[in-house]
Amino acid sequence: MRNVLAVQENMVTRIVDLRSDTVTKPTEAMRAAMASAEVDDDVLGYDPTAFRLETEMAKTMGKDAALFVPSGTMGNLISVLVHCDVRGSEVILGDTCHINIFENGGIATIGGVHPRQVKNNDDGTMDIDLIEAAIRDPMGELFYPTTKLICLENTHANSGGRCLSVEYTDRVGELAKKHGLKLHIDGARIFNASVALGVPVDRLVQAADSVSVCLSKGIGAPVGSVIVGSKNFIAKARRLRKTLGGGMRQIGILCAAALVALQENVGKLESDHKKARLLADGLNEVKGLRVDACSVETNMVFIDIEEGTKTRAEKICKYMEERGILVMQESSSRMRVVLHHQISASDVQYALSCFQQAVAVKGVQKEMGN
C-alpha cells in the first residue's frame, strides 16, 4: 500500500491549495522588493520601509497612525489590551468570532480581560439589543467585570466570510459611544469586505477606534498584520508589541512585500470572490454536497455533506489530497475552501471535477463495504 501511495504522490504534478488564503507564496515582485528593501532598526523607530507601510496603511484606513505586528493574533491581543488597560475589564464579542475561538484565549490568559460572549447570527452580526444588554451596569462594579470594549469581525470567517455592512458597524459604534466604550474591528479580511460591499475601506471602519488588518490573508503578503488607530493608541500599542516579543528590528524586508501586496493584490479580490461563487455554484450541482449560496459573499466556501451521503469529509479530503487538491476539514460532515489570487479559473474547474469524483467513488466504496 505504501508503494502505491508513493507512486500516486509522485504522479501528482498539480497542486491546488485551497486550505486558506494564508498559503500564498511571495510573488517575484515581492521577492525583489524584499531583496532591495531599505531597512534600519524598527524597535528604535528608524526603519524607513516600515514607516512607509505604516503611513500608507493609516491613510488608507482613515486613521492617524499604524503599527506593523507579526500576526493578526498579536494585533488583536494588543488592541484589546490597550483598550482594556485594567485587569478585570470585559470585552463584548461574538461567540464564534476569531478572537474568541482561535486565538488561544490570549486576552484572558495574558491580559486578564474577560470575554463576554454574545451569539453571532448566521451573517456574523450580533443583535444590537443583545450587545447593549451585555454591557455591565457600573452600579454593579463590586460584582461584575467592567465593560470597556466591543469587538466585531469583518469579514466574519466562521460565518463563511460574510460582510458586516457599514450601516451595522456605524450602529455598533454609536452604541459604544453612548456607553463610553471603545470599538475594535478584527479586520483580518477587511479589504475583501470593502470590495464585496463596494464601500471604501476607510468608510467601512470609520466608527472603529482601532482595526487589525491582516496582510497575509486576502491580499497575499507573506507575513504580518497592521493595527491602526489614534496616535495615542499606537504609542501604547508599540510598547505592548515590545512586551509581547513583537519588536523585530529590520522589518522593512517584510513590509516591502506587504507594500507590493497592497499595490498589486487588492484589485484581484473581486476575481477571488467570483471564483468562490463559481466553485460554490458548481459544488451545488454535485449530488451529496451542499453549499449555502447566500453565505458566499467573499472568498470563502463552506461545503456540507448532505445527510444520507455514504462518505465523510475525512475521506473526501484524503481523495482530493491524492490528486493535489488541499482542502480544510471542519468536521466529519463539513469542509472549507478559500480562494486567493494564486488560484486560477482552471484550478476551480479541476477542483470541481475532483469533488464530483470523490463523492461518487467514496460513496460507492462505502456502500460496497456495507
Can you summarize this structure?
The chain is α/β, with parallel strands linked by helices and 370 residues long. 43% of the residues lie in helices and 16% in strands. Pathway: Amino-acid degradation; L-threonine degradation via aldolase pathway; acetaldehyde and glycine from L-threonine: step 1/1.
Could you characterize the architecture of this molecule?
The protein has 370 residues and is an alpha/beta fold. The protein folds into 2 domains: 4-19 and 268-360, Alpha-Beta Complex (Aspartate Aminotransferase, domain 1), CATH 3.90.1150.10; 38-250, Type I PLP-dependent aspartate aminotransferase-like (Major domain) (Aspartate Aminotransferase, domain 2, 3-Layer(aba) Sandwich). 43% of the residues lie in helices and 16% in strands. The strands form 3 sheets. It has a 7-stranded mixed sheet, sandwiched between helices. Helix 8 (166-178) links the parallel strand 5 and strand 6 (182-187). The longest helix is centred in the last third of the chain and has 25 residues, at 345-369. The radius of gyration is 22 Å and the shape is globular. The two termini are 22 Å apart.
